[in-house]
Amino acid sequence: MNVIAVVSATGGAGRTTVCGSLAVLLARRRHEVVALELDNQNVLSVYLGLDALPGRGLVQALLDGRSAWHAQTFRSAEGVLFVPHGALDGEQASACDARLATMPCWLRSVLADIDVQGDGVVMLDTARYPSALTMQAVRCADLVLYVSTPDPAAAVSLGAVLAPLRRCAAALHVVVNRVNPAHPMQADVLALLRVKVGEATLLPQRLHLDAAVPDAFARGAWVFDDAPSSQMSHDLHGLAKWLDEWLVARAGGN
C-alpha cells in the first residue's frame, strides 16, 4: 500500500482538486485507490459524487471511539473508494483536536485497517497545514505532494514549513498550481522556488491556470473529461503519469 498526502499551508492552493483528480486518474490506470478526506470542508466527497455534504464520516469514529467510519464508505463512478470527513460544529471540532493531541497515531491505526494491496494507493486530502490531522497525515505518508501557487505569499509560506515537512515526510515534492505564463511576476517566483526548494524537490509537471477547470466542476465533471484538449487536462495527465512511474519504481524497490 502506498500512502500519498496532498498538503498546502495556504488556502485556495487547489490541493483538493489535485487530490481528487489524481485519485480518479490513478484508478483509470488500474490502481486500487482509496481516498480519505481529512479536511472538514468535505469538498472532495462532492467532487467524487456525493449529492450533498455528508453529515457523518471519518472523524465521527474518532469522537465516538469506535470504528464506525467503515459504514461511511462510498465508491465513485470511477471506482475510487472514499470516506468523507464528516460535519463538525465548533464544539466537536475542538473535541476532535483535543482527542488527536492524545492519540498521535490515530490516523496510522485507520490506515492499518485498510486492505489495499501491492501498487494500491491511499490518497489523503488534508486540511491546511499544520492542523493536527494533517500533521499525522504527513508522518504516515510515503509521499507528500505539497501544492503551491506561484505567488510571493505562497512562496513565503512554503519557506516557513519546508524544513519541518522535510523532517517528518518520507518523501516530499512540490507541485506548482495555477501557473500563468503571461504573468511576469510568476517567473520570478518560480525561480525563487527553484532556489528555495531545489530542482530535485520541485516537480517539472506544472498545473496551469485554466478557465476549463471551474467550468467543468460547474457541470459536475472532471476537466480531463469535460475539456480533454485543455491545458489543465494535459497537465493533470502528466502529473498522474509521473506518480504512476513513482509507484512502479517504488514497487520495484520493495
From TrEMBL:
SUPFAM superfamilies: P-loop containing nucleoside triphosphate hydrolases
Entries under InterPro entries matching the protein: Cellulose_synthase_operon_BcsQ, DNA_Partitioning_ATPase, P-loop_NTPase
Protein name: Cellulose synthase
